[in-house]
From TrEMBL:
It comes from the Bacteria. Residues 74-93 bind DNA. Residues 1-49 are annotated as: Disordered. Residues 51-111 form the HTH tetR-type domain. This is TetR/AcrR family transcriptional regulator. Residues 20-49 have a biased composition (Basic and acidic residues). Keywords: DNA-binding. It comes from Streptomyces oryzae.
Amino acid sequence: MKTVNNLDEDAPPPATLDVVSEKPGHSRDASPDARCPRRAPRQEARKLDPERSCRLLLEAALDEFAAKGFAGARVQDIADRAGVNKQLIAYYFGGKEGLWNELSRRWAEREASFNQPDAPLDEVMVHYLHDALDDPRGSRLNAWVGLTGGEPEAGREDLSDLERRKAAGEIGEELDTGAVLLLLMGAVAAPVVTPHMVRSVLGMDPQSPEFREFYTEQLRRIVRRLG
């Protein structure tokens, strides 16, 4: 985690901020053009770097959500991880739910960058797998949500891409795309949320390069069999 100067806990939110914001989930990437919602500044506030503060808060929120789930994560703990005043969460994001929504937006952007229509399904799933192995926080967050609930309401999953792939022959006619999606999501998350089963079933360390190479190739073969 990056080191920042702690702010006085009683200090008010920053004043002269011309804020541009920054996105689930699982993404940890921060970009200069990310957006923070504009809010009316307070006269007595001190000037801060808004992009840096937003980035640190989003990283801290992802850490907390992955460790405790949405329901279990506390605003104060997120602020403590980020090393900033907790008032900045409301100032930039409108509260804990705003952090969740911004992380979800970022993940959707990241997902769109590699889940391209012309990419074979097995390559797309390998990208999901490597993303989860490189940064397991998204998979852990989803596991917590399933166990504890309490997350902001989300819309129904869009299956149009899998329906298109089914029409193109990448998924068998007899297979339901929703069931396929659940199967693939489980295959990607398993090494992260059930590492003990990887050791028990395969006798391999789920964090080892050997497992990564083996499981990547097996996932490719399984996905190809779907067609």
